[in-house]
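re: ur question from earlier - yeah i can do the single chain one, its not a big deal. heres the input i used so u can compare w yours
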Amino acid sequence: MSQNPQDSNSYDYNPEYGNLNEQNAQNAQYGQPMMVPVGIVQKTPEQLAGEKAGQTSMVLGIIGLICNFFVSWWLIGLPSLIMGVIGIMKANEAERFGTAASGGRIMGWINAAFGGLFLVVIGGFLLLGLIGAAGAASSSSNHFTELVSTLALF
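and the output i got, formated as tokens:
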């Protein structure tokens, strides 16, 4: 039997083709799961949560580094200190879920160190300035000198 390309009926009479369509209809009827291609691995919710925490620690580290240069001078280092501490906590959370977050952890420690340094240095100067202004306004200079000498010991 020769098959004529113009005659589409000759292809419709193949019994194997009919069986293939029946098998596909049965699979769809019983709701069998779709095949996952080779090489694609589904991630667990723990892995997704770890990746999210790692990315959050990295973003907080980058924003904290930007805050070190632009915002920390005026706000006594609090934004970078807070973002550093939260970034370290998120990096710990990511590593608990099995995701590496060393970049976020390192930037978090840098932010916490710079934020703490700004807080101590700039906050200390502001505190000494306020104490000096209060001492200059007071009539008793002995009280002011005692207060400044006490603070100098710390």
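Helices lie at 9-12, 15-30, 45-70, 78-96, 102-137, 141-153. not sure if urs matches, ping me
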